[in-house]
Design a protein that fits this description.
By secondary structure, the protein is mostly helical. Helix content is about 65%, strand content about 0%. It is found in: Cell junction, Adherens junction; Cell junction, Tight junction; Cytoplasm, Cytoskeleton, Microtubule organizing center, Centrosome; Lateral cell membrane.
């Protein structure tokens, strides 16, 4: 019986299965001992001889790392061997004859050991005698903190020095040489200096500080000073720089370690001050996740300092803390009972006073549970557990209630995850009493299936994983009788998660989460290793979407009647659901069930005789795809010419009526490779569909042509396929709204070219070659000018994005094309990367960097490539969607002559756009560039000429001209062209005025007119005859037929004259200002034009005259 028809056969997968996968063998990789003793001894012993040889040193290091990495998951196996390994390596450091390179090499080996075993166990092996203090300190002081190749040495020495600080003698006794700085001061200075470094040494320095400052002799002299310095630094240091972040990180680590290791009586007096400083700093709102985590860690340590060290006597205890007692009770017939506190203990418990700062601590920890970073939430959850363990019963129950508030329906996925972690910590510590399980269990069951949609994806896998951790903790924290009322619900939810969750971590977590009914049988079928393999898990024990359908295929054989009569009717409405994910899953399921039913009947599938529900086009297409992918087409017994014709008819019919974005999947090459129909007829049919009056039919036909295999394309590439697709890409007045067709045609062009292949001297009808590549580039570059808009907005952006992707694919395909085409492609990518829509800017930026950084193949003829690489280095990361990151890089392209025009054109629509953040960041970056060329006349003239060329090229194109006028207004207001104001009638100003006049000529666009008024007012700063011409234009607008334009012109002219008080003769200035401010410019045209003419007379300007209309 095949795996399709028998879901129970895990060990025998069906070779006919589409997802043919091997079963997972749960082979144990656990080690039982450290077996490389001889190898490690020889490696360490050879260090003094091989250190001068770089190759031998690197080989030895790699060998040692490979050995130690085997024990990453079982580091305790190293414990019997750590002492001799560390001692052998320390002999190199202790010997005065050992050269510095050998010392550094030995410390690298020591660091590898500490990384595998953990620094807490590792550092105990360091010798900490009095004689070690001075040499270790001296060697550490000799190191260069900025040497990136020897940081392991400094890390090891800092840990060693922290161990020498444990000597029980006063450090002042070691100050033999009075001329030198006291050892206490030297250690203190060194420790503080390493708190601000950017490497691992910062962590070791925090350990050193915590051990050093808590010494009895040091805490009296240095504890207060260190805390004052720390709090001052936290308050004054900015986290906007890397150095500031490193310093804050080191200080917060040190304080957390200090309050952990220090005696409560010593540090309690400082705790309120530190807490106040943290509140003022508001670390919970910091952008750096590591600082938020350390803030939470420090807050919980402060909370434990405020509370007396005590073990909550009210907590739930399963069994005894004595292992002997537990074993003896387990062997007897009497069950182990949970221990409950006595009533007098509870009375004594409630009498304990809680400092008021604890409320603030708990509040900060609850905020940390909702942080966006997992590490912060995990630290906050542990803090909740630790602090709650020292609270009275009533207050602890209030904390539990606050944690349960995280599971509200309006809370985010982060809050749910943090709440689960906190409940697990409370449960395993016995702080979640059984009475609370009635409130907790329903929430955990919900968390086990938590899934929240965000756009086209969903989140919640971390919540489900944490919910499994809660179940794991509960199973070990409570007696079976306490969980008995809830065991069925929890067990069912865990099994479903273990076998149905799409995330491997959740499946694994659920598989080890509890001890429940039939637990052994369930774990045998769905153990930790079995659920790890996706195909095995889906086909044998779970189902979801694509592979869920195959699980239903397996189940069909068990009860065909039920599947056909009950399941299929339920799936059919979902096949047309609005939710794409539901629709996709239903389509797959219907196809697989139908396939299984046909196998049971033993007859080939006849589409014309298939039940009504399979005639649904979606399902039928997916069914065809499954048969093609399963290689059924090659079986002459199963497929006939009639069936192929029926399939082709269904595909063609669907292409005319449906557009679901998946035609390339439905029309699989394995299907076309077995077509018996004429390939010429097929291509002609699809090219004819490109002239349809239905936009979706055209789009479908374009994608269909793009999915054709090479043997069909052959001899038809240029004259038929590319010609038809190129025609579809062009905009004509009749089909300007056919945006989707142009988008898919642009995509299909690249697909056809990739399918056909490349040969420079080949035939244009067979391959992409010198004879047709120019036409391909031309049509794709023309698509980059598609800015079609409708009620949905800039719908042409989809065409531009598809064309840009195709340009990249074709360029990488024919890397050696002409320099002119490469330059145009790079310039188009530059322009799109500077425009205002975030997602398309990110797409264009990714294409630009892909072409720039491509190595296989490398793209030749990129203009000014070295300058581009300096702006966009290969190792750098740039979030193109973030305007604050993208535009500072884009504006650097303005200094590259080849890219200046297109970069400025893209910036124009961004600076003059509507989105606040885009406008702010793009204008800031642009003005930073202009500020840099403020006194460079040549660069400023070139920039001005480029600006005028853009204006000239896009006259009366409102998409560019209106944002350009807005940008000019900002430039003039920022005195960006102050250099031109030093010369009368500068050519830039004259040309700009002429273009502005031409732009608003006969215009009735209020937004454009208002923007031009602002530009005219800004141009008043330019001296000469141009100033009179500008004033005359403003006076003409004072008599405009639109009252809103008259008012805007009067208001802005008034403000401009206040700014430039030397423009008008002082003798008439007051009269002009009074007339502008007091006149009601909304009055009738005859009235306001009289006032306007009065202004012209005062300023000795000719009165505007109305032009007679030409009959």
């Amino acid at each position: 019986t095949s795996a399709r028809s028998s879901p129970a056969t895990m060990a025998l997968p069906d070779p006919d299965d589409a997802c043919d996968a091997e079963d997972v063998a749960a082979t144990s990789c656990a080690l039982d001992r450290f077996s490389e003793t001889a190898d490690v001894r020889s490696l360490i012993a050879s260090l003094p001889e091989i250190y001068p040889d770089g190759t031998a040193t690197e080989s030895a290091m790699e060998r040692f790392v490979a050995i130690m990495d085997r024990y990453q998951e079982q580091p305790h196996l190293l414990d019997p061997h750590l002492e001799w390994m560390v001692n052998m390596l320390l002999e190199l450091n202790r010997s005065e004859k050992t050269p510095a390179p050998a010392v550094h090499l030995g410390c690298k080996f020591l660091y590898v050991i500490s990384k595998v075993r953990g620094y807490k166990v590792f550092m105990r092996l360091f010798p900490h005698e009095v004689s070690d203090v001075q040499p270790v300190l001296d060697l550490l002081c000799e190191q260069d903190p900025n040497d990136v190749t020897t940081w392991q040495t400094r890390y090891v020495l800092l840990l060693w020095l922290s161990m020498t600080c444990l000597i029980p003698f006063d450090l002042s006794r070691l100050d033999g040489d009075l001329s030198r700085e006291p050892i206490m001061d030297r250690i203190f200075t060194v420790a503080k200096s390493y708190l601000k470094v950017g490497d691992k040494c910062r962590d070791a320095a925090s350990v050193l500080v915590s051990k050093f400052v808590t010494r009895p002799d040091v805490k009296q002299k240095r504890l207060g000073d260190f805390l004052d310095w720390s709090l001052t630094t936290i308050t004054l240091t900015s986290d906007l720089t890397m150095q500031g972040t490193f310093l804050l990180d080191g200080i917060l680590q040190s304080l957390a370690q200090l309050f952990k290791r220090g005696k409560r009586d010593d540090v309690l007096q400082y705790a309120p001050t530190v807490m106040k400083c943290l509140d003022q700093r508001q670390l919970s709102e910091n952008k750096q996740a590591v600082l938020r985590k350390l803030g939470v860690k420090l807050v919980q340590r402060l909370g434990l300092t405020f509370l007396k060290p005590r073990l909550a006597k009210w907590r739930y205890q399963r069994g005894s803390r004595s292992l002997t007692l537990n074993l003896s009770q387990s062997q007897s017939s009497k069950p182990v009972e949970a221990l409950t506190p006595a009533e007098d203990t509870e009375v004594e418990d409630e009498a304990y006073d809680i400092p008021e700062e604890v409320e603030n601590v708990i509040e900060q920890l609850l905020i940390g549970l909702k942080d966006k970073e997992t590490t912060v939430r995990w630290s906050a959850a542990k803090g909740i557990g630790r602090v709650t363990g020292r609270l009275p019963k009533e207050l602890a129950d209030e904390v539990v209630g606050s944690v349960l508030d995280c599971f509200s329906f309006h809370e985010t996925v982060n809050a749910w995850h943090g709440g689960c972690l906190a409940l697990a910590e409370l449960g395993r510590r016995g702080l979640l009493l059984p009475s609370r399980l009635f409130d907790v269990v329903p929430l955990i069951v919900k968390a086990l299936t938590y899934d929240e949609k965000r756009g086209t994806c969903s989140v919640g896998s971390d919540v489900r994983d944490a919910a499994c951790y809660v179940c794991w903790a509960f199973a070990r924290a409570y007696e079976p009788n306490e969980l008995k009322p809830f065991v069925t619900r929890i067990a069912s939810a865990i099994v479903i998660t273990a076998v149905f969750d799409r995330d491997i971590n959740c499946r694994k977590a659920a598989s080890v989460s509890g001890t429940f009914p039939h637990g052994i049988d369930i774990l045998t079928a769905a153990d930790y290793f079995a659920v790890a393999n996706l195909n095995n898990c889906y086909l044998s024990i779970r189902a979801i979407r694509d592979l869920a359908a195959k699980a239903l295929h397996n189940l069909t054989a068990k009860d065909p009647d039920y599947m056909s009569a009950t399941v299929l009717p339920q799936l059919l409405p979902k096949a047309t659901a609005k939710d794409l994910h539901t629709r996709h899953g239903a389509i797959l399921a219907c196809a697989e069930i139908t396939h299984a039913l046909s196998k049971l009947s033993g007859d080939p599938v006849n589409m014309q005789q298939t039940p009504k529900l399979v005639i649904v086009s979606y399902i039928a297409l997916q069914f065809i795809s499954i048969l093609c992918l399963d290689d059924i087409c090659v079986c002459s017994d199963c497929v006939c010419v009639c069936l192929i014709a029926d399939w082709q008819w269904l595909i063609d019919d669907t292409l005319k009526s449906l557009h679901i974005g998946s035609h390339r999947y439905f029309i699989h090459p394995s299907f076309h490779s077995h077509l018996f129909v004429c390939t010429d007829f097929l291509v002609n049919q699809y090219t004819d569909m490109l002239t349809s009056t239905e936009v979706l039919t055209r789009a479908s036909a374009a994608l269909a042509l793009g999915s054709l295999p090479k043997f069909i394309i052959n001899n038809k590439l240029q004259q038929v396929i590319l010609a038809a697709l190129q025609l579809t890409c062009r905009i004509t007045p009749k089909d300007v709204t056919f945006v989707e067709a142009r988008r898919d045609a642009a995509t299909a062009i690249a697909q056809v070219c990739k399918s056909a292949g490349v040969c420079a001297r080949g035939s244009p009808d067979c391959v992409l070659c010198a004879g047709n590549v120019g036409g391909v580039y031309t049509v794709l570059l023309d698509c980059m000018d598609d800015y079609t808009t409708d009620s949905r907005g800039d719908v042409g952006a989809g065409v531009r994005a598809a064309a840009l992707s195709s340009l990249m694919e074709v360029t990488l395909l024919v890397a050696g094309t002409s320099p002119e085409l490469i330059q145009r492609t790079m310039c188009c990518a530059t322009q799109q990367a500077a425009e205002k829509i975030d997602r398309f800017r990110a797409h264009a930026g990714a294409v630009l960097l892909q072409l720039l950084h491509s190595r296989e193949p490398a793209v030749p003829h990129i203009p000014q490539k070295e300058e581009l690489l300096s702006i966009f280095p290969p190792a750098g990361y740039l979030d193109w969607k973030a305007a604050s990151q993208a535009f500072p890089h884009i504006t650097q392209l303005l200094r590259l002559q080849c890219y200046q025009y297109h970069a400025l054109l893209g910036l124009t629509v961004s600076v003059g756009g509507l989105t606040e953040s885009t406008v702010r960041h793009s204008s800031q970056s642009l003005f930073e560039y202009l500020k840099g060329i403020q006194h460079d006349e040549g660069a400023l003239v070139q920039f001005g000429d480029t600006l005028l060329r853009i204006f000239r090229d896009h006259l009366h194109n409102d998409r560019v001209s209106v944002p350009l006028l807005k940008m000019l207004d900002q430039m003039l207001a920022n005195n960006s062209f102050a250099l031109f104001a030093a010369k009368d009638n500068h050519p830039f100003c004259v040309d700009l005025l002429a273009l502005c006049k031409e732009e608003i000529k006969k215009s009735r666009d209020i937004l454009k007119l208002q923007s031009c008024i602002a530009v005219f007012c800004g141009m008043i700063q330019f001296p000469g005859d141009i100033r009179k011409t500008v004033l005359l234009q403003l006076f003409i607008l004072l008599g405009h037929s639109f009252p809103v334009i008259r008012k805007a012109a009067a208001s802005q002219l008034y403000e401009t004259l206040l700014t430039y008080d030397d423009v008008i003769d002082p003798a008439v200035l007051d009269d002009v200002m009074t007339l502008l401010s007091d006149t009601n410019w909304s009055s009738g045209l005859e009235t306001v034009r009289t006032y306007r003419n009065q202004l012209c007379d005062w300023l000795e300007l000719p009165r505007p005259k109305l032009l007679a209309k030409v009959q």
